[in-house]
Amino acid sequence: MDLPSEKPHEQLSFQQKVWITCSITALFVIFIWFFIATFNVFLLILAGALIALFFHGFAYLIQNRLHLTHKVSLLISIISTFVIIGLLFWFMGARIQAQVTELAKTLPATINTAKQQLSTTSLGQKLLEKTSSEDVYNKGYAFVSKFFNSTFGVFTDTYIVLFLGLFFTGAPKTYIEGFLQLIPKRAKKGTRDTISKVGFTLTKWLKGQVFSMVIVAILKGVALAVLGIPMATALALIAGILNFIPNFGPLISMFPAILIALTLGINKAILVTVVYLVIQIFDGNVITPSIQRKLINMPAALIIIAQLFMGYFAGVWGLILATPIVAILIVVVQEVYVKKINE
Description:
One of its GO terms (biological process) is transmembrane transport. With 343 residues, the protein is mainly alpha-helical.
């Protein structure tokens, strides 16, 4: 007598499971769609977080050396960073601005001169034939336009990233604890440990990158000045900044230096190319701190693949932030999956 009454209950329970499964699937699809649609915004948030990590890493260095409180060290970190940047622009800004302006004005003439120099050799003629067609120009222009297309505009993006970085620097625990409120209680400790490991990894990576940028800018500036290349200061600054982007940054910074060197002759261009390559090899094997390499295993091929995909889908921000994203994903996979299956 009781069996017929149990079937509707079982059938209703099955329907509820179906609705729950469909709802979860729909929410997951919506979340993925929203994430893809707003991916560039997440990149700006990540860039702001990196700035906050830089300030806190600098503050810990000051704290360890001067034995001050962390709040005072953090304040000194922020102020000293802006003061150093301001002094650099004060003493070198006029010279760099003049050289960058000259570089922009003379670029068309420099390209024409470079073409004339290349046309004097058989290899240069073949290179010009393959790169001077209208189809290649259109494809290159379309790629560059898409690549440098930022989320809200270059200056707006910079403004957003800077202020996000300052907000994250001022109250990191507020944002971390707010995020942890969304995590189930049983997973909060693991999530907190993972966030801490991600922060530690990115801080070490940032230290290595900043140190590498400074050394590369100095070495290339001195080398270009010794070779007598015009606008050596501006080219060194470009090389230092672009060195933040592994693999592709140094290659991009090499092109304006080679173009300007070509105006002085093929031999000068070859010398500049050799100097840039030697410094980059030295940077990759000596300058970059060994602690950064041992900190996390990031295969070079994986970084290049990530840069290609991120650069294509998210432009310049994707290329800049591809490496820290790979580092974050590796740490998360290790903490959430690899450690659990090995326990």
